[in-house]
From TrEMBL:
Keyword annotations from UniProtKB, A to Z: Antibiotic resistance, ATP-binding, Nucleotide-binding, Transport
Residue stretches making up the ABC transporter domain: 9-248
Domain of life (superkingdom): Bacteria
One MF term in the entry's GO annotations: ATP hydrolysis activity
Family assignment from sequence similarity: Belongs to the ABC transporter superfamily.
Cellular localization per UniProt: Cell membrane
Membrane topology, as annotated: Peripheral membrane protein
Stored InterPro entries: AAA+_ATPase, ABC_transporter-like_ATP-bd, ABC_transporter_ATP-binding, P-loop_NTPase
Protein name: ABC-2 type transport system ATP-binding protein
């Protein structure tokens, strides 16, 4: 048996579309541009990337929902194109959102229904459902209708559904999207417990803290290719030699952000809106004090907390994604 549960070599997926009526134009979009990936038996592996980077397309190529344009992939040694039936017997797929459950049924009845679909033998269903309800912490609420569940409870039930047939590989595609912080913590614990049972888990997420806490290794995908791969500690090295300045502000404009980005020593500058405020994050070369210049550039902007800190996994992720974006813009400028 291979030491790798998931293997992908040169995986590509191109979408072809046609626009216009009188003078139709055909265009191709490369969603995945040659992904090479291996995930070990029992590993909890994270796949991170911005919207449109190719995360979900990669997941769907690996779980047989899409056919690769080029390259090949194997799950538990079985080819995802030529041996689709064998692959599907060994995988589970859980996606973020509310679809995929029957609201008027209880959790137990939902699991009974899907157990029949997955071909779980009748004599095993009762015991298996009880095990999964305990794993996802729904024991005691199993007879309640799903329509009364919180989003976090629904997501945990999704995970139970995906595990009914004892898959060797579970794909979790942004399972905590839209879930409140308390429910997200419970969901992370469920995933950690699941990985401890020996199931291989491939997790996509936008939440860096979630990936940092759960994943043994992480791949960052951007522009359809893997841009960085390693443990969370190894990925932080992408931000080595930097320091981070965070400024809480109210009213930072694009012009001010451009001025800050052009300051000597500044490597990255970005703004995230959090409620009524903005958080400006500035990455700069270590040993270069940019705080005074940044605050001068923000003259006229109402400011709050100002904090200097060491880089995190999220800072390394932003550095990687921004580097790819800058390269893409240069290529487009040359082509134009």
């Amino acid at each position: 048996m291979s030491e790798h549960t998931i293997e992908a070599v040169g995986l590509r997926r191109t979408y072809r579309s046609r626009t216009g009526w009188l003078r139709p134009q055909r265009r191709e979009v490369e969603a995945v541009r040659g992904v090479d990936l291996t995930v070990g038996n029992g590993e909890l592996f994270g796949l991170l990337g911005p919207n449109g980077a190719g995360k979900t397309t990669t997941i769907k190529l690996l779980n047989t929902l899409l056919i690769p344009t080029a390259g090949e992939a194997r799950i538990c040694g079985f080819d995802v194109v030529r041996q689709t039936r064998e692959v599907r017997r060994r995988i589970g797929y859980v996606f973020g959102g509310d679809r995929g459950l029957y609201d008027r049924l209880s959790a137990r009845d939902n699991l009974r229904y899907f157990a029949e679909l997955y071909g779980v033998p009748g004599r095993e269903q009762k015991r298996r459902i009880a095990e999964l309800l305990d794993l996802v912490r729904l024991t005691g609420r199993e007879n309640d209708r799903v329509e009364g569940y919180s989003r976090g409870m629904r997501q945990r039930l999704h995970i139970a559904r995906g595990l009914l047939h004892r898959p060797r590989v579970l794909f979790l595609d942004e399972p905590s999207i839209g879930v409140d912080p308390v429910a997200a913590r419970e969901l992370r614990q469920t995933v950690a417990d699941l990985a401890a049972t020996g199931t291989t888990v491939l997790l996509t997420t936008h939440y860096m803290a979630e990936a940092d806490e759960l994943c043994g290794r992480i791949a960052v995908i951007a522009n359809g290719t893997i841009q960085a791969l390693g443990t969370p500690a190894e990925l932080r090295h992408h931000a080595d030699g930097r320091q981070v300045l965070e400024v809480e502000a109210y009213g930072v404009g694009d012009g001010q952000l451009a001025v800050i980005h052009a300051l000597p020593g500044v490597r990255e500058a970005s703004v995230v809106v959090t409620g009524a405020a903005q958080v400006l994050t500035v990455q700069s070369d270590a040993g270069v004090d940019v705080q005074a210049d940044v605050l001068r550039a923000l003259d006229g902007v109402r400011l709050g907390r100002v904090t200097a800190r060491q880089p995190t996994l999220e800072d390394a992720y932003v550095a990687t994604v921004n580097r790819v974006d800058a390269q893409s813009r240069r290529v487009e400028a040359v082509a134009a």
